[in-house]
Amino acid sequence: MMDWIKVIVEKLYKKYNTRNPYKLAKLLNIHVIKMDLHEEINGFYQYEKRNRIIYINSNLSDEEQLIVCAHELGHAILHIRSNTPFMRKNTLFSISKIEREANRFAAELLIPDESFIGYNNIYVIASLHQVPVELVKLKCEKLF
């Protein structure tokens, strides 16, 4: 049986023809705000008066901001009315159910299945998509 998070990501990709979380957020009317946040905070998602808002720490590298955007977009789509706690530096290792789901969403969005056809090394795939190895491992859990 196909994973429900993967199904959602694939429907989004099919409909909008992009895996870019910034473009998807714009198309889905989810506001993305980059701002100077405390160094311990990568980003967070807020639902306020029917507005969905993603906050991203502007001090992060472009690659890190993209990953944070994908993760927070996962919250905006999977956990619409939940205000999420701050995404801290170690969120990829979180045990919280909604944080794990947002990480799986980011992994499915940023790492296409086709990546595993040409490459069988998680470090190469992580480098290719400029994502942490942990995200590739999350994706692998559901693939194999």
TrEMBL record:
**Which is a Pfam family this sequence falls into?**
Peptidase_M78
Q: Ranges for the IrrE N-terminal-like domain?
A: 27-139
Highest taxon of the source?
Bacteria
Gene3D superfamilies, per database record: 1.10.10.2910
* Protein name per its UniProtKB record: ImmA/IrrE family metallo-endopeptidase
